[in-house]
Design a protein that fits this description.
The chain is an alpha+beta fold. The chain is built from seven helices and seven strands; from the N terminus they run ααααααββαβββββ. The protein has helices spanning 2-7, 10-30, 33-38, 40-55, 59-76, 80-85, 101-113; strands at residues 86-94, 97-100, 117-130, 133-144, 151-164, 167-173, 177-178. A hairpin with a 6-residue loop joins strand 4 and strand 5 (151-164). The relative contact order is 0.12.
Length: 182
C-alpha cells in the first residue's frame, strides 16, 4: 500500500483530476462562490499528495538508490559503494565458492581492476521488503570488452538486504545466474 501512495501516486492524481472536473462542472451550473471555493479542495489535496510522495522515502526507494549507486561505481571502476553497502557479516557465492565481505571486495577489486566492464544496464529490478529484510531480484546486462570476453552478458542477481542501525546493507548475494532472465 505504501507503494501506491508514496512511490507511484499517479492513480491518486487521476482521481483528484476527475474530482476537480466534476467540481468545476458543478460550479459552472450554479456559479456560486461556495462551489468555486470547493474547487480548491482537489488542488490542495494534490499538493499534499505531491509533498508527501516527495518527502517520504520508502525502504524500496532507499534500496533502489543504493543499487543505482552500486551500478554507477561499478561502471566507473570504483569500490566505494560496495564498501559502503556490503554488511560486515556479508556472505556470498561466486564461481561456486563461498565468500565473506573481504573476499567479495577483493574479487570485485580484481574484476573492476581489469577495466573490462564498459556498461551495466538494469533490465528488471524487483524489491520485496518484509520487515527488517528485503529481497531483490536484479536482472542486468553487462557489456564487457577485453579481458578474454567481449560482448553483452545477461546476469540475474538475488540479493538479500537487512536493515541495520546504519540503514540497509547487503547481507547475502546468491551465485549470479549468467544468461538468465526473470
Amino acid at each position: 500500500m505504501k507503494e501506491l501512495f508514496f512511490e507511484d501516486p499517479l492513480w491518486l492524481y487521476v482521481l483528484l483530476f476527475i474530482a476537480e472536473v466534476v467540481m468545476v462542472w458543478l460550479w459552472s451550473k450554479s456559479r456560486e462562490r461556495a462551489a468555486l471555493l470547493r474547487c480548491l479542495i482537489p488542488l490542495g489535496l494534490a499538493g499534499v499528495v505531491f509533498a508527501v510522495a516527495t518527502l517520504v522515502v520508502t525502504d524500496r526507494e532507499k534500496i533502489q538508490r543504493a543499487t543505482d549507486e552500486l551500478v554507477a561505481d561499478a561502471k566507473a571502476g570504483r569500490l566505494t559503494a560496495f564498501e559502503r553497502w556490503l554488511d560486515r557479516e556479508f556472505q556470498g557465492t561466486f564461481r561456486s565458492k563461498p565468500m565473506n565481505r573481504d573476499q567479495a571486495l577483493a574479487e570485485a577489486r580484481r574484476v573492476l581492476g581489469r577495466g573490462s566492464i564498459k556498461d551495466i544496464e538494469i533490465q528488471k529490478n524487483e524489491i520485496k521488503v518484509q520487515g527488517a529484510d528485503a529481497y531483490q531480484r536484479l536482472q542486468t546486462a553487462i557489456r564487457f570488452s577485453g579481458g578474454g570476453f567481449s560482448g553483452r552478458l545477461p546476469m540475474m542477481w538475488r540479493i538479500h538486504w537487512i536493515r541495520t542501525t546504519e540503514g540497509w546493507r547487503i547481507y547475502e548475494v546468491s551465485e549470479p545466474q549468467i544468461g538468465m532472465s526473470m
